[in-house]
What we know:
Layout: H1 2-17, H2 41-64, H3 87-107, H4 116-143, H5 148-171, E1 181-183, E2 187-189, H6 215-233, H7 241-253, H8 258-268, H9 273-287, H10 303-326, H11 331-364, H12 375-397, H13 406-440, H14 446-456, H15 462-479
Antiparallel strand pairs: 1-2
Helix pairs in contact: 1-2, 1-4, 1-6, 2-3, 2-4, 2-8, 3-4, 4-5, 5-6, 6-8, 9-10, 10-11, 11-12, 12-13, 13-14, 13-15
InterPro entries: NAA35-like_N, Naa35_N, TPR_NAA35
GO cellular component, one term: NatC complex
Keywords: Cytoplasm
Amino acid sequence: xxxxxxxxxxxxxxxxxxxxxxxxxxxxxxxxxxxxxxxxxxxxxxxxxxxxxxxxxxxxxxxxxxxxxxxxxxxxxxxxxxxxxxxxxxxxxxxxxxxxxxxxxxxxxxxxxxxxxxxxxxxxxxxxxxxxxxxxxxxxxxxxxxxxxxxxxxxxxxxxxxxxxxxxxxxxxxxxxxxxxxxxxxxxxxxxxxxxxxxxxxxxxxxxxxxxxxxxxxxxxxxxxxxxxxxxxxxxxxxxxxxxxxxxxxxxxxxxxxxxxxxxxxxxxxxxxxxxxxxxxxxxxxxxxxxxxxxxxxxxxxxxxxxxxxxxxxxxxxxxxxxxxxxxxxxxxxxxxxxxxxxxxxxxxxxxxxxxxxxxxxxxxxxxxxxxxxxxxxxxxxxxxxxxxxxxxxxxxxxxxxxxxxxxxxxxxxxxxxxxxxxxxxxxxxxxxxxxxxxxxxxxxxxxxxxxxxxxxxxxxxxxxxxxxxxxxxxxxxxx
Length: 480
């Protein structure tokens, strides 16, 4: 019965993560209504930990702010998520139960064939308690706002251990007591669960029944969730804005769940406006290295130029932040938001071109004149073109186009967008090369250093340009 209750509760938790309400999923478990009154120690520790897991997930999603009403329902309908139970106590309760079950397993001699059933039940319950503790600890580590970079190594280890436990949990699902009843509306109902217990808390609308996932489906979902969380943790390794954007877009294509999307947002997004500006400054410097951001440029000493650049980067914070946040929304909502984001980036590109012209004129009057045309403009144009491409391609994914519209879309992608995208990358590539040659050519043996630079120089965007060229040719093939 304990195994059955644990498995069914996890199935309810997974169903909640898929967009159903808490009172129709997790809180259909009657043991969760008064967990402190439970006499059975393993069940009591597990129920309290489920409360804490629900609270952590709700906090992730609320702070990540990338959920829609169809993704997640954070309302707790008056249930208190045990704020008086600290994390250490919840973990200690699970660990005590885990140790007790472990001692029971070790103290028994090798079981006889007729005693295998009891031994397997104890082993299965021990594995579930351990998995719950590890899963809760991994979420708790992710939730710590300070020193996140240092804590992620520990989190990865905990998640890996959780993933290793899943096969045993799936294999021992049949050790749980069978459902006491089953119907078409709710699916199998385990002992200690009542799908209609919270019916009075729901709004007076048409009856809507929630079909809970099966126990096998729940463990498959948890396995995928753990893999996605491990993938989301890798965002902290992205050293530049553009590599982070690529990772967000790649993650979004796999239709991740709301938890992994929210965690990824929280791990990456800088908390203060100043840190966001510095991140964008470094992103522009890495992408095309405008003279105004070059460490050796005399433009940095010009207060007017510095003011223009700082003002422009401050204006960039909102659109670029919205682009990262957009990648955390579900695929259907992304298309709506992409249309609004296009307007923001179009306005930003106009400002970038004005800033470029102003800085170019200032640079020509300086001691070491360098061209500054189309620097910030190219940097802003690159994500703008990617947004346009994402908008068009999302129509295929969401099946919004009629068949006769396909040639128009492929024509626009082939003739314009991918060509412009490669052009912007080529321009950035050439500008970086020129900057590198100019900086390395200063001083003695200028010509020799320049020759060495030419030999050693690598094109940072060569691979990306080749990829977009292949995509352009594919669109050309579909179009023609």
